[in-house]
Design goal:
heterotrimer, A alpha/beta, B alpha/beta, C alpha/beta, A: alpha/beta, Rossmann fold, C: alpha/beta, four-stranded mixed beta sheet, 5 helices, globular
Chain lengths: 267, 505, 219
């Protein structure tokens, strides 16, 4: 299968290791990964902040990058950005009366998957240890991000994959379904409430005794990790793609930055 | 009449207790500082959340009931003029009298007039969001009419000269000891040995109100539902104060928003399953009363209904936002909301707090009224409210819609664009092209320098300072993924491989 | 323009996009699969959960049950249309005399012709009524003001409500029950004694409505 990677802007710029891990996982399963180079961002920050007009070119760019590239399915290591592509893009196109863009956005959305969704539903991964060689001998807790949980209905796909990683010790996160308080510009506009939510999330993470907190969204992990770091906590965050990509031979460190080298894409 | 046809009419916004007097972040900052409040709210919202989940998961057809409830309300909005006329005809035929009120002021003066006509200067009241919204009690007081709230929580709030902070449990922000103290301080003849046991406090309220119920000549209520095909009104309650008010007085005045209609008797079977489980987390609330106009020999013989617009027609005109009017005031959204849980209801200013309030208040008043434009931002968009809503109001989508209404309302009006405006414009430029984002990413090493040896950024200027008030930012990587990919995938002629037309020469 | 016309004009204006009124999907349950003893068992379970007192008795034992529940009452009220036979256990002096031979002096009759005043109702200890229909799944009893239930005030003001539910009147779920009654009558749906959860969400039974609810299920 030819899989187009939508890295998402935050992973591209801040957490490239997460995107490299995603590539690694997919190539390990024997698939070809392509990176449509026109891609930038899903535009969710603009939409969710009310800047619909400013979101239009961002959405149009994403649609242009992904409706011309030659691939079977697209994948992103983010529930939130995939939800935006699927649900917000057609709405943004509609809001500016561009019916052609709306149709193209809908088509792109239909082909776009969140990573765990692709692995479980399309690629049939049921045992990460056996099928991906995933090995990560650490005590880990898992935060299911809101948009993956409620907009994409990912259910237990991510935690099921994590549970099958060899060597992992998965500690249940109390009040896991509660928002970490990120919410994009909410974290700045309503910094006090956001911080109060984060405080409770960080307390819950620490109560598990885990070395790190994982999840499927780099933005939420940056938020939780930023709070833990500010507290001086040794607990860090790491995207689940990096845990799945970690093997006995190439172990991801708890601090992130798995050393991943991929073969050159063959065309 | 004909002069109105085809003319674009301005929306008629609502008035009364619908406004955030100060911006949400400011109010939230103050409320967050009250540790007792946060403890009370955390305890209460978690208790009711668990109860709701238990009784909802008991029903095999909960989702089907939600689908039906949502469609019924959608249908009500689409057919509202016709259903209002049908209701009016039926209610009137059964001896009820209908009054129409454009706004809070008109509704208040109608109610006061009806009370004056009876010669009474005291009324008993059933908890009602509509009368809270129009500020009826305050108005009646000015007119020399005393209104006694009879719902326990409303009584607590009234005795404390406080404001409700929750739709269902107006005194949710008070714990038992605080309530005991309010009773001792404000309730005439309260037993000085009163304990803080909820059952003891409930009995004190019973003693306090019993004489009022038995002698009141006029009652004022809201209504949960109105059935168009029969002219029937319904009040859903727990304590029996509602039954007292609806049954014993000679005159009953009900104030109800125009959106509360249900088309048929059959629709009640849907809503009476959705509402109790969503609101109190019970299979059924203790008491529901239904009355159709006047029944000879049973209950009040003077029955009035004030139908209230107060901004509802304006909310209805917003195609994206109109489904906020589907709300049945169950409060499930606020009980699951992580923002409400921490700030409480007072931070929202309006009678309607929580996620529903954050959309309903600005829809009723217009986004530009007072500080109501800060309300749609009072959400992390986590979506818990949408999942809990028994009539499937897509609150997160409406929040986002109203944010864009807010942003658009300011376009071209401000002399100097805000930091957010500038940032969003710049981000739109950078994020609408892979090449431009790639260029910006070339600056990542600068961020590494800024982060210093700790590899974290701890202080940012301007609005981004909101982030660094409680969060660090990690040092950016030396190289973006895009860069890494391009280098890894260089083709023999030394240009990066392309799978996208934008990169083609 | 009158407020009425003004508001209706505003609403019509607000709907100028002519939104569609969708078909209502009624995929939810319209009837339960339960009958007979299962219905009774479920109703009892729900009522007990609400802290109501429940007894399931044979129809013939209803009078004795009522008599025993009223033992401590100084006075009680009944609606004029209540089944006389149900009160048989109270008449005749309680020593096995013929039913109806001597009317129980504690009884107050409420009828449309001679309704009790509110003050009088406040002075009685208990009320006995029949019921229109009950919902097993939610533990709800519906009164519709029929002669055997009386006007709403009599089942409200006295502090102890004894309510008889015939087994045949038990429906499984709410839609079945609502189909059996006339919605334009004055209706009270009762699910347990009055209660409040207004203080810390802790449920307390007994506020303004009857603090004691005794349900007699007659089969």
């Amino acid at each position: 299968m030819r899989i187009a990677l939508f890295a998402t802007c935050i992973v591209d710029a801040m957490y490239p290791a997460t995107a490299r891990a995603t590539v690694k996982i997919l190539e390990r399963l024997g698939h070809e990964v392509v990176f449509p180079s026109g891609q930038a961002c899903c535009g969710q920050m603009h939409v969710n902040s009310g800047y619909l007009k400013e979101a239009v070119p961002v959405v149009a760019n994403h649609v242009a990058a992904f409706d011309t590239a030659d691939y079977d399915v697209a994948v992103a290591p983010s529930g939130s950005c995939v939800a935006s592509v699927k649900h917000q893009h057609p709405m943004v196109a509609r809001s500016c009366g561009d019916t052609a863009l709306e149709a193209r956005a809908t088509a792109v959305g239909a082909k776009t998957y969140e990573l765990s969704e692709l692995l479980v539903d399309v690629l049939g991964v049921t045992d990460a240890g056996a099928q991906l060689g995933s090995y990560f001998p650490h005590r880990v807790t898992y935060h299911p991000s809101c948009h993956g949980m409620r907009l994409l209905r990912l259910g237990d796909r991510q935690s099921r994959l994590l549970r099958t990683v060899q060597g992992i010790e998965l500690a249940d996160l109390p009040e896991a379904d509660q928002c970490c308080g990120f919410g994009g510009t909410f974290s700045m506009k309503n910094a006090d409430v956001s911080s109060a939510m984060l405080q409770d999330k960080a307390d819950n993470v620490r109560s598990t005794g885990a070395e790190l907190c994982t999840g499927g969204d780099a933005s939420c992990l940056m938020h939780i990790g930023g709070g833990l770091s500010r507290e001086g906590s040794p607990v860090t965050t790491l995207h689940l793609a990096e845990i799945l990509a970690s093997t006995m031979a190439e172990q991801a460190s708890v601090a992130g930055e798995v050393r991943v080298s991929t073969g050159k894409a063959t065309r | 009449m004909s002069t109105f046809l085809g003319m674009p009419s301005l929306p008629a916004f609502g008035s009364g207790n619908l406004f955030a007097g100060e911006s949400f972040p400011k109010a939230a900052h103050r409320e967050l500082g009250n540790a007792q409040l946060r403890a009370n709210l955390g305890h209460a919202t978690h208790t009711i959340r668990d109860k709701r989940i238990n009784v909802v998961s008991e029903l095999p057809d909960w989702e089907q009931l939600r689908d039906a409830g949502s469609a019924i309300k959608q249908s009500v909005m689409a057919r509202l003029p016709e259903l209002l006329e049908q209701f009016e005809e039926n209610f009137t035929a059964r001896g009820g009298v209908i009054h129409w009120a454009r706004d809070a002021k008109e509704a208040n003066s109608i109610v006061a007039g009806l009370i004056r006509d009876t010669g009474e200067t005291e009324v008993v009241k059933i908890k009602s969001m509509a009368t809270q919204e129009i500020g009826l009690n305050e108005y009646l007081e000015e007119q020399g009419i005393e209104a006694f709230e009879t719902d326990l929580a409303e009584l607590i709030v009234q005795l404390d000269h406080d404001k409700p902070s929750h739709i269902l449990v107006p005194a949710i922000h008070k714990n038992r000891t605080e309530i005991r103290d309010i009773f001792l301080r404000e309730m005439p003849g309260a037993d000085p040995d009163l304990t803080n046991e909820p059952s003891v406090l409930a009995m004190a309220a019973r003693e306090h109100l019993r004489r009022k119920f038995l002698t009141a000549k006029v009652a004022v209520s809201g209504a949960n539902f109105a059935l168009a095909d029969s002219g029937t009104l319904a009040v859903v309650e727990s304590e029996g104060n509602g039954r007292m008010c609806l049954t014993l007085p000679e005159t009953l005045i009900t104030v109800m928003g125009v959106e509360k209609l249900l088309p048929t008797w059959q629709d009640l079977e849907v809503f009476m399953q959705l509402l109790p489980r969503s609101s109190t987390g019970e299979r059924m609330n203790p008491y529901t009363s239904l009355w159709t106009g006047v029944t000879e020999g049973d209950g009040p013989q003077n029955v009035h209904l004030v139908l209230l617009d107060n901004g509802r027609s304006a909310a209805l005109a917003d195609e994206m936002g109109r489904s906020a009017l589907h709300c049945i005031r169950c409060s499930a959204c606020m009980n699951v909301c992580p923002v409400y849980e921490r700030t409480g209801g007072h931070a929202y200013g309006s009678t309607y707090p929580g996620p529903i309030g954050a959309i309903l208040s600005p829809l009723l008043t217009g986004i530009e009224a007072e500080e109501n434009n800060s309300l749609p931002y009072a959400s992390s968009l986590c979506g818990a409210c949408y999942d809990a809503c028994p009539v499937k109001i897509n609150i997160p989508d409406i929040l986002v819609h109203l944010r864009s209404v807010d942003v658009d309302s300011k376009r071209g009006k401000k002399k100097v664009p805000s930091q957010m405006d500038v940032g969003m414009k710049a981000a739109s430029w950078a994020l609408s092209s892979g090449k431009r984002l790639g260029l910006v990413e070339k600056g990542l090493p600068l961020g590494r320098i800024a982060a210093g040896p700790d590899k974290k950024i701890t202080k940012l200027p301007g609005i981004a300072g909101g982030w660094t008030q409680s969060r660090d930012i990690p040092a950016p990587p030396a190289q973006s993924f895009r860069d890494w990919w391009a280098k890894e995938h260089q083709t023999p002629d030394n240009t990066p491989s392309t799978n996208n037309k934008e990169a083609q020469p | 323009m009158s407020a009425r016309d003004d508001i209706l004009t505003r609403i019509r204006g607000a709907l100028k996009d002519s939104p569609e009124a969708p078909e209502i999907p009624r995929e939810y349950r319209s009837a339960s699969q339960l009958d007979g003893d299962a219905l009774i068992e479920l109703l009892v379970d729900r009522l007990v959960d609400y802290k109501a007192q429940v007894a399931v008795v044979a129809e013939a034992e209803v009078p004795a049950r009522i008599a025993s529940l009223l033992e401590g009452a100084r006075t009680y009220v009944v609606p004029a249309g209540l089944d006389d036979g149900w009160l048989a256990g109270l008449d005749g002096g309680g020593d096995g005399g013929a039913p109806g031979s001597r009317r129980d002096s504690r009884r107050r009759l409420d009828s449309p012709a001679q309704p009790l005043t509110v003050a009088e109702l406040d002075g009685v200890d208990a009320v006995v009524t029949s019921s229109a229909v009950a919902v097993a799944e939610t533990g709800t009893i519906l009164l519709d003001g029929s002669p055997n239930q009386g006007r709403r005030a009599i089942s409200l003001v006295p502090d102890h409500h004894i309510c008889v539910v015939r087994a045949a009147d038990i429906a499984g779920i709410l839609p079945e029950a609502l189909r059996r009654i006339d919605g334009t009558r004055p209706i009270t749906m009762i699910s347990g004694p009055s209660a409040t959860s207004d203080i810390e969400l802790e449920r307390v039974e007994g506020v303004h409505g009857p603090r004691r609810l005794d349900v007699i299920i007659a089969r």
